[in-house]
Amino acid sequence: MRLAFLLAGLLAGSALAQSSAPSWKGQIIYQVMPDRFYAAGTPLTTQNVDKSDLKSWHGGNLKGLTEKLPYIRDFGATAVWLTPIYKQVSGRDQGATGYHGYWPENFRDVDPHFGTLADFDTFVKAAKGAGMKVLLDQVVNHYGFGAFATLERPKWFNNPSTCAQKGNNDVYCPIFALPDLDQDNREVRDFLFANADFWRARGVDGFRYDAIKHVPQSFLKDLLARDRAANTYTLGEWYDADASTIDSLQRLGFSSAFDFSMSSAMRSAIMSGSSLSAVRAVLERQGEISRPDEVALFLDNHDVARFANSSPFEDVARERTKFGWRALMSLRGIPVIWQGTEIAMRGGGDPDNRRDMRFPNQWTPEEKAVFDVAKTAVAVRKANPALNVGDLKLQNVPSSIEDDLLVFVREAQGQRVVVAWNNARQRKTYSLRNTLTAQLPVTRDLYGQDAKLSFKNGFLHLSLPAQTAAVFKLN
Ligand SMILES: [Ca+2]
Fold it and tell me: Residue ranges of the Glycosyl hydrolase family 13 catalytic domain (predicted)?
């Protein structure tokens, strides 16, 4: 009896460990950096606030984010990712402050610049009320510079002068000289597990785990098993991840990881005007990923230069950002949108990529035009299951035109669409031998552009405007 009970317990335990990671297939995530988004109410502190300095605090807060939720929802996003909101160390390092949230002093409190825990609870409640999910950034690798914990509990940290002896500098040595937590220490593991529980209990639906390349996989495996058991979605940030890295992270237990390889390929092909074969090469590797529907797609984020910045000309950058939006919304995976990309905001590397968000009453007509294209692309994706949750099958194109043309078919819930990206600098017509369907009258682009597709006598005929992506329904 006792043995049977024990066995039943063990079986339940192993079923828990093997439970699959929650899926956010079909979601559209909008990323905000609260300090750079919107300020509302009376600030609790103005220490180190200086809007003229990109390395200082700018005063955006949780009240402001809550106030702007209708903007995010009306744009079409279904989830909000907040960069960390922890109480930050108060010092500066190389002139910078902890406005970005990645320099924690206290993992279980909100920095007064952002507001209070009650403000966070209000935000979560408002997001849920608007039918949106909340994805919170979690730091598990380090504390901020000079955090009190380094004095109070020195045994929790890897020693910078001996870390190399542990055999994996990426994991055991500090990044940017930040106090590096030793996750092989039981107390540290329990502390980090409890941090996740703390925020989960406040209603958070998912975690974006920062800098996971720099923490032991044995720790991550246990952390993720707990998240899965609690049905918490997990998104891993492994800088420069490609298909094989994403697959190994999903096997470790993550729901998803960011596809840096697709982001780089889209930047070079679309924004810099190089060959589309870079994008094709990334898509050809999707078969390596266990769960390709979960891959996090992005044009840019707070750690890389703005997508629009890869062209020196603002008008060109805006037009190519429109292409980027239509292209991103045609891909398989979960789109993640960095605040401001919907108006083609510019900015180089950190911190120039973190300029203050600007809202509709501050936009130029040209920015509004980018926004309209982005919003339409998001709406079209959401309205068409083939785009939102479908599989993706690349179609062959002759090598003579593969720099300029990418074609794939997506299908879900009985709907089938053809997606075509044209990277040529002028309007083009293409005729491809193809057996997708026998006959089809002329079909127009779902994004509303002057683009056409037809089938006749075993050929697919496409007429596409310059530098854009178009989507055509086959049924
Ligand atoms: Ca580390």
Answer: 31-381
Nearest alpha carbon to residue 83 among 56, 55, 111: 111
Cα distance between residue 284 and residue 108, in whole Å: 43
How many domains are contained in the chain? 2
CA of 365 to the centre of ligand 1 (A): 46
Max intra-chain CA distance, the chain: 77
**189 CA to centre of ligand 1 in angstroms:** 13
Of 213, 219, 200, whose CA–CA distance to 240 is shortest? 213
User: Is residue 362 domain-shared with residue 430, that is, in the same domain?
Assistant: no
Rounded CA-CA distance 296/29 in Å is 9
92/304 Cα distance (integer angstroms): 22
Could you give the percent of the chain with pLDDT greater than 90? Answer: 92
In 3D, which of 379, 299, 386 has the Cα closest to residue 344?
Answer: 299
In this prediction, residue 84 carries a pLDDT of: 98
**Looking at residue 442, what is its pLDDT?**
82
> Do 214 and 330 fall into the same domain?
yes
Distance from C-alpha of 464 to C-alpha of 452, rounded to nearest angstrom: 7
C-alpha span between 109 and 119 (Å, rounded): 11
Domain range for 451 is: 391-473
Residue in the block written with tokens 């930040």: 178
Residues flanking ion ligand 1, Cβ below 5 Å: 141, 180, 214
Q: How far apart are CA 360 and CA 328, in angstroms?
A: 23
**Boundary residue ending a domain (389, 404, 427):** 389
Query: ∠ CA(25), CA(26), CA(27), 5° rounding?
Result: 95
